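User
Take a look at the entry that follows and flag anything odd:
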Amino acid sequence: MAERPAKSQPAKSLQAATIGKQAASELPAALFGEPFNETLVHEAARADLNARRHGTHSSLTRGEVAMTGAKAWRQKGTGRARVGALSVPHRRGGGNAFATKPRSYTIKVNRKARRKALRSALSVHAARGSIAVLPAGSFSEPATKQAADGLAKWGGQMPALVIVTGEEVAAAKSFRNLPRVSVVTAAAVGVAEIVGHRSLVASAGAIEVLAARVGEVERGEAGEDG
């Protein structure tokens, strides 16, 4: 994960560089004007990373290992210490004392807190100028060289995260082969990805999707927010 951002205030201008153009792009204050909240960002990032764990790890206890139940030698008369089952944890081939078993690592985060954490993480990039906007229609077909040139002219630090919509396939293919560049859709991006990269590139369509994702929670709204 990248260096932890310092606590910062919302960006005053809420403008970002535009990939491939000289003019700056306006950023919506509702999405990029949230003060940084370290506690919420940490909680949401931890929940994102834990949700990716399969939790299928499993090891055997002393009662599950394939081991004979016979004593290694008789109780008395050998001059050796008495011994019981060979499946005990401190013997070779024995079971584990605290065997890991399948479990879920999911951590529940309230929808309001998760959305506020996402706004907070995005606002940090806006405040320090490490976000750029990819104009709509920039890629009609995959062009990795064009994507590399755009990033180079912008001068964003690596690693970089490119956020696009599910329909912007050409843009995703253009960036995904670049070293130290990750591509994710706006519907699936989480706080962990945002704080784990030193710069962001978001398409105009992706910003609209993110703005809809982090909107205020309506009373009676069903389902968990991602």
Remarks:
- The first strand starts at residue 15 and ends at 18.
- DSSP finds seven helices and six strands in the chain.
